[in-house]
């Protein structure tokens, strides 16, 4: 039996906080798993340290499914972002270990490669349409086949997705939540202009995406989807808050613009109706927040039955450990759609040495056994945790709104 002999949680902040589970076994093989939940990192660290790790020691590391069921059903209090991020970290570390023991990259254990590489999308943003298009043109010159467009909204001091630094976007920007201001009417005017300008400049051989970030009502989303149809977006993401999955029926009645949702989902149950009724086209759940490789495969298989493709979340607050795991999943899953790729800083990449690489608008996980990523714990120790919150959002009249 391959016994789990130890497991520890490493919290580090190379420019932003990451939570990593490091698991060791009786054969000396170690695995890693991402457990980062932006703005709530210590909740997951505690869940792992105080409630999960004591139950792991002595278990057979090869029993990935049994351990997953033990941590999910055995918790009694099922689901939720903290629980499922903790389960994800254990699951990911176990798959890493299994790959290393087998001497195979993880994708080979998931059924092998279904494609040559993993198409990704970059993040062009700017305070104006012109700034955004200029950055998008640079991404296109770098070989990206898909680019997300987010621009400032005239009359608003800031908005989602627009960062001071063109190529790195980190929304958790303060020790207590910063307060952003939002106006749907101002926003709805600028996005169609942004896409019209993008098609004029970038042409039609590039996929263009947009993240609404939960800020519209269903009928407003129908309006925006219809306004964007002439520009053929690859997707319109998080058009509305998905608590009420019925909302997407109304959007579907008004527009053929493809819809993506799910980066904040943590189990298949969050998406069941959306998938079954084909109310979305892409499911954004990813390894770190949706219970790991084991559960993400279930979500993808269910989605495949209903023509829904994957579009895993891949923002900077998901560590290179999650990115590596997602890329192995992306390379193998039959109904792959696209992978988000917000590049990490050099500081972060130094803490998490990895074998995935970018070329020609795509990433490949590499062929190192297991995940092909690790954490340099000595370097990580140089970056102590620094509390940081995601912002909150208010309407211009002060009403608390969705960020
Ligand atoms: O699609 C995306 O990447 C965004 O929605 C994220 O930047 C999201 O805001 C962050 O991951 C939140 O921590
Ligand atoms: Mg998003």
UniProtKB/TrEMBL annotation:
UniProt-listed SMART domains: MR_MLE
Record-linked InterPro entries: D-mannonate_dehydratase-like (IPR034589), DgoD-like (IPR034593), Enolase-like_C_sf (IPR036849), Enolase-like_N (IPR029017), Enolase_C-like (IPR029065), MAND (IPR034587), Mandel_Rmase/mucon_lact_enz_CS (IPR018110), Mandelate_racemase_C (IPR013342)
Pathway: Carbohydrate metabolism; pentose and glucuronate interconversion
Domain Mandelate racemase/muconate lactonizing enzyme C-terminal: 129-258
Superkingdom to which the source organism belongs: Bacteria
Reactions accelerated catalytically: D-mannonate = 2-dehydro-3-deoxy-D-gluconate + H2O
One GO term of the biological process aspect: amino acid catabolic process
One of the record's GO molecular function terms: mannonate dehydratase activity
UniProt-listed SUPFAM superfamilies: Enolase C-terminal domain-like (SSF51604), Enolase N-terminal domain-like (SSF54826)
Cofactors: Mg(2+)
Gene3D superfamilies with a match to the protein in the record: Enolase-like C-terminal domain (3.20.20.120), Enolase-like, N-terminal domain (3.30.390.10)
Key words, A-Z: Carbohydrate metabolism, Lyase, Magnesium, Metal-binding
EC number, as in UniProt: 4.2.1.8
TM helices/strands, residue ranges: none
Function (record text): Catalyzes the dehydration of D-mannonate. Has no detectable activity with a panel of 70 other acid sugars (in vitro).
Family assignment from sequence similarity: Belongs to the mandelate racemase/muconate lactonizing enzyme family. GalD subfamily.
Protein name: mannonate dehydratase
Protein source organism: Sphingomonas piscis
